[in-house]
Amino acid sequence: MSLSDNIIPAVESEQVEFKTSFNDEVIVSLVAFSNAKGGVVYVGVQDSGEVKGVQLGKETIQGWVNEVKNKTEPTVIPDVEVMGIDFSIPVDYLEILRRWI
Q1: Residue 8 binned pLDDT confidence (cut-offs 50, 70, 90)
Q2: What is the distance between the alpha carbons of residues 74 and 49, in angstroms, rounded to a whole number?
Q3: 3-state DSSP call for residue 75?
Q4: φ, ψ at 34 (rounded to 5°)
Q5: Contact 50, 89 (CB under 8 A)
Q6: Across the chain, what does the average pLDDT equal?
Q7: Whole-model pTM?
Q8: In this structure, which long-range contacts are made by residues 34-38, counting pairs with CB atoms below 8 Å and at least 24 apart in sequence?
């Protein structure tokens, strides 16, 4: 899956996690993905796959990226994209590509 894909998977998998909001669980999932084959965390989606969306402010995304960077060692820096479902419900996703050490 790449950042250019604009479709949310129907279910979670080894490389897809759904989170209703940004919190430490998102960071734990990103770290796990960075230590495996990579993956995507969709923020604003329930475990059932139902899209709820998230409230995004002017600095929300940068704040999330900074929090991930500050709470991980070695530093994890996710790629982030905001998606709109029917252009009305924003869903954010953070992607980690496999790091080769």
Answers
A1: confident
A2: 31
A3: coil
A4: -70, -20
A5: no
A6: 81
A7: 0.81
A8: 34/76, 34/96, 34/98, 34/99, 36/98, 37/98, 38/95, 38/96, 38/97, 38/98
Strand partners, 62: none
pLDDT tens sequence across 50-91: 888 888 888 989 999 999 999 999 999 998 888 765 545 666
Q: Which helix (H) or strand (E) holds 67?
A: helix 60-70
The H or E element spanning position 82 is strand 79-85
* Residue 32 to residues 17, 40, 53, 85, 88, Cα–Cα distance (Å): 11, 11, 24, 27, 31
One-letter amino acid of 83: M
